[in-house]
Amino acid sequence: MANSENKVMDFMSTLPGDDVRQIMWRYSDRYDLQMIVQSARSLARGPVARLVADGARNSHEWNDKKAQLLTGFDESGLTSAFMDPEEGGFIEGPKNLALALIAFELSWVDAGAATCSLASNLALSPIKEKGTPEQKLTYMSRCVPPQPGEDRTVWRGAFALTEPLPYVGVDTGVVSGKMRIVEWEDGKEPMLQVEKRGRFITNMGFANFVTAAVESDDDRIKGSAMVILEEGDPGLFDRGAITLKLVHQLSSTSDPILNLKVPASRIIGGYTVKDGVIIPNYNHGDVIESVFRRTRVPVGIMTSAKLLSAIEPVIRYHRTRFRGGNASTPGTPRFELGVQQKEDALQRLVDIWAAGEAGAAFGFSTVHLLDRFDPLERRKEKVLEEMGIKGGRAQMKLFKELEKDALEYMELSRLPESSRDNARLAELEENTLVQFLITDALANVFCPACKLWNTGVGATMMREAVSLMGGYGITEDCPGFLGQKWSDAQLEATYEGPEAVQRRQLSITMTNPLFLTQFSHWIKELEELDSNRPSTGAAVLSEAMKLWLWTLEYLQKTKDADGKALYHSQRHGVVFPLADALCWLLTVRQQILDVVELEQKGPENPVVAADLNGLINFFSDLSSVQAARAAGECGRICAELVYGFNRAETDGCDALQTFNAMRLGVDTKLAGSRLAKDRAATALSKVMIPEALDYPA
Ligand SMILES: Cc1cc2nc3c(=O)[nH]c(=O)nc-3n(C[C@H](O)[C@H](O)[C@H](O)COP(=O)(O)OP(=O)(O)OC[C@H]3O[C@@H](n4cnc5c(N)ncnc54)[C@H](O)[C@@H]3O)c2cc1C
To answer: Using omega within 30 degrees of 0 as the cis cutoff, is the peptide bond preceding 166 cis?
Structure first.
C-alpha cells in the first residue's frame, strides 16, 4: 500500500493533467468529450482571459467586445454541443457530462463566460425536456451556428422565470406573468396574449427568443405553462433595464418587459382542448423541475473549477514571494519555497484543493448519473403511456407499489450470486419503472446537494484562496482572477435557486427510503473499502454516515422540549442543517471513489502510471483531509440538533448515550487525518508547476 509506514513516501511530480482527470471523472473513453474540453479550454484561456484582463468586466452593458464570446462559442463547437446530431449537433446521447465539462473549463477562467454559454441552453432546456417534436426541431436547429454555405443568424435564447418583486423568486409558485386568449377562430390555432416581466434575466441583451413561465388569466386556459416568445412577435419585446451586477459581467442580464401575441402552439409541450378549454400538457412547475434538475449541476461544478484553478496561482505566488533581496539566493529555502516555508500557507491550500476536489468529484458523478437517468426517464414515460397512466394519483399509487420491488432489487443485488434469486434480480433489472425509481431517488438528492454544497461551501473556500494571495487577492490583476472568482461564486450560490431552495428540496427527498437504503449500503461499502484500502478517509466517513442516519431517525421520532415535532419540512432549523450535513458526506464519498478509480485504472495509462504512486498518495491524503472535515461538520450539526432542543442537560439520556458512543466512534476514526494533511502539504511544497500561468496569454 502506497502510504504504508515502511515505504518511502512518493510525491506527485507535477500538477495532475488531463490523463488523470479523464480517469477520475470517467471520460477516458470519450474522445468527443476530450476534444470539447480542449476547445473550451483554448477559448477560456485565450479570448475569455484576454477580455477579463482588458477590463471587459468593468461594464454592465452588453457590448461588441463581450459579443465576441458568442462567436467564440459558435466557432469552437460549444454552442452545438447541446444539440443532437439530427438538430445539427455532434454529440450522440445525453449531454450532461459534456455541458459540465464545458462549464468547468470556462469557469476555470471566468464564470460569467460560462454562464453566458450555458444560458442559451437553459432557455432551450424547457423545449428539449418537454417540448413537442416540432418545437424541439425548430428551436434547437435555429440555435445551431450556420454550416458552411448557409446564410442565417444563429438564435440565442433567454429563460425567464424570475419576476420583479414581489413575485417569483425562491418560490416558483407565485407567477404574475399572464396568458389570455385574444383570438380563437373556428378550426384555427388560438392566439394568446402573453405578458411577462422578468428580473435578472440572463442573455436578455441579445436573445432572439424567451422561454417564459406564465399563468392563465383566462377561464379558457387551465393552470400555467411555459411559453416561447420571439423577438419578431407582434407587441412589445423590451429588453429592459440592465442589471448592475457586481459579478459575472461577461454575461448579459436585464429586466425585460414582454407583451406579445403568439399562437397557442408556442405552449411548451403542447396542449389539448377539452370543453372549450386549453389544457397545457405541462404546467410551468413540471417543466422547471425537469430543467433545473439538470442545469443546476454544472453551476455547482463551476464553483469547484474555481477552487481547483486557484491552486497553481497560489503556489506560484507563494514560492516566488521572497525572491530577490540580499537574503535570498537560488537554492536556499527562502528563494525556492518563499511563503511555502510556512506550514499554515501550505495546509490552507490543501483545504482549498480538498474542497475543490470533493465538489468536482461529486458534480461529475452527478452528471454521469443524469446521463444514465435521461434515457431511463424517457423509457419510463413510454411505459406509463402504454399503461395509460398520465401522472397524478394513479402514477403515485403505482410508484408506491413498485417501491417494494425497488427495495427488493437493491437487497438482491448486494447478495452473493450463489445465494440469491438471480432470475428475480434479472427481472427487476429489466423493469424500467423499478430502475427509474432507484435512479430518480438518487438524482433527487444529488442534484440539489451538488448545487448547495459546491456553491455555498465553494464560495467560502474561495475566500480562503483569496486570502492566501494577500493584498494581491483583492485586486483586479490577481493571477487567476481569484478576487472576481470569489464574488462570482456567490452568484452561483444564488441563481437557479439559492441555497434555501436546495435545502428545501433535500429536506424532502433525503428521507425517501429508496435513497436511504442506498445510503446504508454505501456505509457497508466504505467499511469494506477501508479494510482493503485504508487511508482514504473511508473509515471516518462511514462512521459519520452512521451518525447522520441515526440522527435523522431520532429527529423523525422525537419532540422538542415544548412537545413540538422536530422533523418537519417547515422546521428549517432542523431539516436544513441536516441537509447540509448530508452534503458534506455525499461529496467526500465521491471523492474517495475517484481515488479508487485512479488507483484501478491509472496503471493502464502510461502517462499516469509513471507518477501513479505520488498521485495516489496525494489524492488519498486529500480525501482523508476532506473526510475529517466532513465528519467534523456532520458531528457538530448532529450534536446541535440532538442536544439543542432539550432544555436540561439530562433530558433524553438513554438515546443520547447511544449518540455519544457513535460520536466518539467518529472522532476516534480521525486517526491519521492530520498526518495526511501534513503529507499533502509537503506534496504541495514539492510539486512542479509551469513557469507561468497559461492565461491571460
Ligand atoms: C446575475 C443574475 C442572473 C440571473 N439569471 C436568471 C435567468 O436567466 N432567469 C431567471 O429566471 N432568473 C435569473 N436570475 C434570478 C435568480 O434565479 C433569483 O435571483 C434567485 O432564484 C432568487 O430569487 P430572488 O432574488 O427573488 O430571492 P428571494 O426569493 O427574494 O429570496 C431571498 C432570500 O430569502 C430567503 N428565502 C426566500 N424564500 C424562502 C423560503 N421559502 N424558505 C426559506 N428561505 C427563503 C433565502 O435566504 C433567499 O436566498 C438571475 C439572478 C442574477 C442575480
So the answer is: yes
Cis omega before residue 696 (within 30°)? yes
Ramachandran bin of 480, using left for φ above 0, alpha for ψ from -120 to 50, beta for the remaining angles: left
Quote helix, strand, coil % in the chain, to nearest 5: 60, 10, 30
Phi, psi of 211 (to 5 degrees): -100, 115
Least confident of 207-211, 220-224, 275-279, 325-329: 325-329
Give the distance (Å) from ligand 1 centre to CA of residue 491.
10
Q: Give the integer Cα–Cα distance in Å for 685 and 697.
A: 26
Q: What is the pLDDT of residues 354-406, one digit of tens each?
A: 999 999 999 999 999 999 999 999 999 999 999 999 878 999 999 999 999 99
Instruction: Give CA–CA dist 609/622, Å, rounded.
Output: 19
Question: What number does the ligand 1 atom closest to the CA of 160 have?
Answer: 11
Joined together, the cell numbers standing for residue 349 give: 491550500
Q: How confident is the model at residue 3 (pLDDT cuts 50, 70, 90)?
A: very low
- The reported pLDDT for the residue numbered 650 is 76
Share of the chain above pLDDT 90, in %: 92
- Name the nearest CA neighbour of 213 among 136, 282, 116: 282
The answer to whether 524 touches 543, Cβ cutoff 8 Å, is no
Average pLDDT value for the chain: 96
- Outline where 270-283 has alpha helix (H): none
How many angstroms is it from 501 CA to the middle of ligand 1? 9
Q: What is the pLDDT of residues 129-157, one digit of tens each?
A: 999 999 999 999 999 999 889 999 999 99
CA pair distance 612, 16, nearest whole angstrom: 10
Query: Which residues contact ligand 1 via a Cβ below 6 A?
Result: 119, 159-162, 169-171, 200-202, 243, 245, 248, 253, 491, 494-498, 500
Query: Exposed (0-12), middle (13-18) or buried (19+): which is 570, by Cβ within 10 Å?
Result: exposed
SS3 per-residue string spanning 198-229: CCCEECCCCCCEEEEEEEECCCCECCEEEEEE
Ligand 1 centroid to Cα of residue 289, in Å, is: 15
User: In this structure, are residues 444 and 399 in contact, taking their beta carbons and an 8 Å threshold?
Assistant: no
Other residues' Cβ atoms within 10 Å of the Cβ of residue 563: 6
Q: Which atom of ligand 1 is nearest to the CA of 491?
A: 53
Q: From residue 35, give the alpha-carbon distance in Å to each of 24, 68, 373.
A: 17, 21, 24
Q: Which amino acid is at 139?
A: Y
**Cell numbers found for residue 195:** 405578458
Q: Which of 62, 495, 504, 506 to mutate to test the pocket of ligand 1 (most atoms within 8 A of CB)?
A: 495
Residue 555 in grid coordinates: 429527529
Round the CA-based radius of gyration of the chain to a whole number and report it. Answer: 26
- Closest Cα to atom 17, ligand 1: which residue? 495
**Residue with CA closest to ligand 1 atom 32:** 170
Q: Which residue's alpha carbon is at the smallest distance from atom 12 of ligand 1? A: 162
Please tell me the distance from the alpha carbon of residue 599 to that of residue 535, in angstroms, as a whole number.
13
How many CB atoms are closer than 10 A to CB 487? Answer: 18
**Distance, CA of 477 to CA of 51 (rounded, Å):** 13
Nearest atom in ligand 1 to 203's CA: 8
Among the listed residues 554, 555, 551, the one whose alpha carbon sits nearest the alpha carbon of residue 569: 555
